[in-house]
Amino acid sequence: MVPLIWLVVGLTLLGVLATGVDLDGLMAAGLAALLLSLLSALVAMPTPVQLLLFGLALLTVLQGLQWWSTRRRARALPWTPSAEVAEVLSGFEQSEQGRVRWQRQSWAAINLDGHRPLERGQQVTVMGRDGTSLQIMAGPSTPATASGD
After folding, report:
1. 87-131 pLDDT, tens digit each
2. What residue ranges do the domains of the chain occupy?
3. Side-chain half-sphere of 79: how many Cα atoms within 13 Å?
4. What CATH number should be reported for the domain whose range is 84-145?
5. Exposure pattern of 41-74 as b/e (b: 16+ CB <10 Å)?
6. Rg from Cα positions in the chain
7. Is pLDDT above 50 for 147?
8. Where would a tag sit more exposed on the chain, N or C end, judged by fewer CB atoms within 10 A?
């Protein structure tokens, strides 16, 4: 395959990602295709070898992103004395992810104490934020700081 094809594939996949489509592995496939475009421009190789290298690059990028994601999540959160209270809306029964109401809005949330199930209507403490997801733990620190209703 011509390096230009890999370049077009990589840019197309990243362009689709930029439009808001969120499919697992889409960014990794786009980055792997761009990497293969560069590599195939430097070294001539047959199509089966390029496809094999694409698969290996895709797996490597996916593993790297997974490692980076778990490393980010494992960081200690700073303690904040002004932690706020949210209310569980849904989820958390069988997973560490769900939705909470905080500051009168619905938020995606991650239960930092994943082994403790949370029930709908339960008050939880907002410990921090990771992108557009709140990081929560069971039990409010102080009921006086409730701002979820």
Report:
1. 999 877 777 888 999 888 889 998 888 777 888 888 998 888 888
2. 3-74, 84-145
3. 2
4. 2.40.50.140
5. eeeeeeeeebeebbeebbeebbeeeeeeeeeeee
6. 21
7. no
8. C
